[in-house]
Predict the 3D structure of the following.
Amino acid sequence: MRHLLSSAAAAALLAHAGVAAAQAAPQATQAIPTVVVNDDTTAPPAAPVYGTGGESGTTTLNLEAIQSRAPGSGDVNSILRIAPTAQFSNSAGNATREALQDLRPETLSISGGSVNDNLFILDGVGVNNYGYDDDAAPGDFTGTGVAGASAQTHWVDTSLLGELTLRDSNISARYGDFQGGVVEITTRAPAHTFGVQSYYGFTSDGMAEYRMSDLARDSYGAGARPAEPTFEKERFGFNVDLPVNARLRLLAGYNQTNATVTNFPGNLYAAWGEWGQRSKAENYLFKGEYDLTNSLQLTGQITWAPYESEARQNNTAYDNQITSEGGGLTSRFGLDGTRGNAIWSLDLSYADTNNDREAPSGTFNISSSAPGIAGCSTGSSCTIGAAGDFHQDQQVTTLKGEWEQPLGFGNLAAGFEIAHIEAHRERPIELVSHLSTNINVNTVCTTGESLACRNGAYALTTQLRYGAFDANAEINSYGLWGEYQFDVAGFDIRAGLRYDHETFLDNHNIAPRLSVSRDLPWGGVNVTAGLNRYYNRSFVGYALREGAGVTRTYTRTPTIVGTERRWDDNWVLTNHTDSSRYSGLGLDTPYSDEATLALTGPLAWIGGQYRVKGIIREGRDQISRSARFTEIYDRETGTTATRAVYYATNDGERSYQGLSLEYTRPIATDHTITLSTNFSHTDATNLSLFDMSDEAELSGVMVYYQGQVVDLVAALSDNQLEDYASPFVVNADWSARWLAGRVRTNVNARYHQGIEVVADTGVNINVGGTNYDVYDKIDFSDSVDVNLSVEAEIVRTTYGTVSVDARINNVFNTVLNQDYESTTQPYQLGRNAWVSVKFRY
């Protein structure tokens, strides 16, 4: 299939290039526009651009808007905090060592969708994980997940961006495979003039304050508190614009971010001392544009974005280093052209994602009483080793084309998309855990000494072998879409239809998209209504877990020769378990139906632009896990046993109702203010695709709520999600230029209202001789986060400009999550800063 795509793409590219070049008429066409770097200080500081009409759900930030709001970490997704429909995790400010070391982009929910349901597009290439469901722990032992994985498979640093677009509602039929929102990340285009930009930034625990919630502080009382985390982070990079001639322009860029965090072993292994753990994220970008004619442009780029993160299992002594990988390679080659009044494009792309893990293979659990083991652990035994190697990868090859032109009394747009997806998860060899120590001075290791056997000391007599497995899933995906936009009696109508078929679920999905807008006769107001359906992409996580639950137990006994106890590799199978089976076929494709109403226009007397937007979504056929079934299977020992069997089902549901208000206004030429708010309610029957729906799991469980015994499902019916779902958000943003543009500042604030949920109070009550858990409403706290950025030019010459940049987060040093409590890592980041030096020529 991949070779077929490549061949078809090559033929199509050549054909289109030949036709367009032959028919080009310079006097009737214009060059294709590109995103270039500008230093325009005559216009007001850039603010988000609100879409209107059929694009009422679109928000776009250009280069300047990105630069003024980008965090010191370079995380692109964090910029979207300015959008009221984007929700982030309550735990974003937690200062656990794992969080401080994590350099992956923040996860977000858009318009009530799951963090896994967004469509991320990097320079026209889809970068979405078909098998990801949740973060795995850095020290995950059994190998059902990899710590470097992410819902967004590839990411780049903000220093490489040219434009960022969020689509949260009323989304065109040209976009499919999502239920949340669409995030389009566009790196900047090569400039027409030579230029160099570079930077170096730094932060550390010495530039940060630590805070603790009242809950966490009360839990310690007058007792000793854990040591505050120590860390260092650095971020540096450069990019170079290389215009070869009037037609060919190149851009090369590189950046790297490092995080080093001091970590500590568990209490039983304190003698081994602290160590440093490191994460590293890199971006290599090479991008080119070639103007074949005035009406035809050839574009191409390669982005390599590897990610590497170290971890250790802190309940082991040594040989426990785990290195998880993420990110990977994306490449795209395309043609963009015009033909008469038509605009067309054709793209061939490839995305390779690597989520491998490297670690010592297997563990040895040895009694602390064994000779030579004293001091290894203060517990009854000492564990040495780690989780072993694990492979997880995904490859996506895509060919897509678009055509847009006037037709009849409107405008027609249409396109196709063909993709081949391969997903793979593998434990290449058995993962062996040795345990059960036999201590004897007459021990003889006939096959040589190792941690499993020491002469005159001990032998380990039991092995748990986690079976090797190799799971694969393959999808061929086909999409067609079309839209016609026309005017009827002053109503602008965009009617679209999208058809998708893929071979994994083998469903044929038709998604209508309809938008109707009208300019009202007063005040420049535009009103837009939309009715849309969005189908999600396939999820292959169930297929990739198949075979991961096989465990075999082996034991051995010594051969007695005189006084010697001779141990060899005469391991005998004594137990065989196949703990679970997963099945994910025969499902309907999850979808979400949306109704939206938007009002946009200028604000009378005060000035500025506003947008009021209401969104209602109902998600159905969401994937969830079935109840536990059992089946009898034959063990390799000759006996039978019972194992659990789980099926993927369509029992899940998700709903969202939101009302957002947005306003932006330039003030003179040097200031821009942006305000927004969102009222919303989000609920879902299951958070993870491997969770049962509430109806399947909780129905029939009786609890005491509001003075009566009720079904738990009924008690929880009004709950909204506890994370990624604040019911009330307020954003305020002020960008300014000072001293003729040599100093640029941005202040942004976000108010996040806590929620009220029905939950177990921990109290029981007896009603009619039966004990019930008491459920009641519990309040979660509000939070306010204020951030400041200042960039000041300190040198400006004909040889370039040098500036100093400071990004201060949580300016007022507040506790961002009063509901967070941990007995081992209770701290949250208070005020903290990134400081950078930048050079531009």
